[in-house]
Amino acid sequence: MPHDHHDDNPHSLLPSEPALRVKALETILTEKGLVDPAALDAIIDLYSHEIGPQIGAGIVAKAWTDDAFRAALLADADQAISALGHGGRQGEHVVVVENTPETHNLVVCTLCSCYPWPLLGIPPGWYKSDSYRARAVREPRAVLAEFGVTLGEGTKVRVWDSTAEIRYLVLPMRPEGSGGMDEATLAGIVTRDSMIGTGLPAAAGAAT
What we know:
By secondary structure, the chain is α/β, with parallel strands linked by helices. The protein has helices at residues 18-31, 37-50, 53-65, 67-75, 77-83, 117-120, 125-128, 130-138, 140-146, 183-187; strands at residues 94-98, 103-108, 156-161, 167-171.
């Protein structure tokens, strides 16, 4: 006999649109006393306004202008980054890999979406997609081309798989024509994607 029943699984109550799903899930968890709205708002505000790719950009710019820091960053990124007051949850055990004319580095997380949040902020949607996670390993040059990055035939692509134990940050090559820029100005041309490897720094004249 048909009968009504109550499904305690919160996911069964969520709408299909992603934004509405997030809001509905937040409401359900709040009503059940599992989430403190004030704490959640504080976390969202932190990652939206205080933590973001500008942190990583500052680290890259310092590495471009300070050879001693660059060497320390490549030798022990955790220690070098911690000395600047950065790091923390989701940013433990960071390894910095350097782009050169011979090698271009690309970061992916094939299992989920491990990402150095304290340095780059919230990961972009495409980084978490099944397509990127699979294709970045299988056909990295094709993926790079779709992001607008075309490499010379002599440049090899090295793909790094982030995990819960190790997260990677790309140190992109400093653009030509940026020799007269100070550290703060250089940080303005370091893009988020260039620190993942799916992009390059902006042209030297594009600093804001």
